Model the fold of this input.
Amino acid sequence: MNDSVKLHVCNQVATITLNRPQQGNAIDLPMAQALLKAVITCDQHASVSSVVLTGSGKLFCAGGDLDAFVAAGDGIAGFLSELAGTLHLAVSRLMRMEKPLVVLVNGPAAGAGMSLSLVGDIVLAEASASFTPAYGAIGLSPDGGLSWLLPRLVGLRRAQEIILLNQRVSAEQAQVTGLITRVVNEGQLWAEGVEVAQRLATMNVSALGRVRQLLLETHGTSLESQLEQEARSISALASQPYVRDKVAAFVAQRTHKNKKEVSHG
Done:
């Protein structure tokens, strides 16, 4: 893994940091490859129970590295196919892994950076953050899953307006429209984000993974199919020792509480 993406694990929380601050964390091919490697590590390692994704410096991510686009010259089509393909593997893994994902948007997110900012289960943003599709400004269409994510978060009509008109969405507007979870006070992004990630890390990872999968498939599944998947999921989880211990502890606590109430009645 190169220095353009940093991975740190502490107390079962893995933090992936986009780390090209001088370039606004713009994504070139080595960075996309490093991001994919970091995501695979988080997905596969049992020591990781939740994941945080953020950027270093003043921007979350400026999107694709336009200098790399220019450097590709006449081979830009093949270059973008490889770049987008690599990024898409990372996005898919982030969204389909068991571990819950908290995204901390520390500043403007544009293009593929906007796509990355929206993949989290919980998305927190500083007031200075903003979200801009940016693709239209250089005559391109979205990548990174933006055309899939945005309509599901804000509705088709609003998504059409944002992408086609290349609208910049402020952090406050993003919260109101459901694009992000919430805006946090200045200087509190990291503390609040880690607190959320640590809380998630204490939960049953298998259950969180099942929830992520169920929610991800909602829009393409009938009610009956969703009910069937819910039934399969809850029954499979119920056989885990973790769940059985939790249920037994809850029942014991409730029984103890009821006895105390009777004795003081």
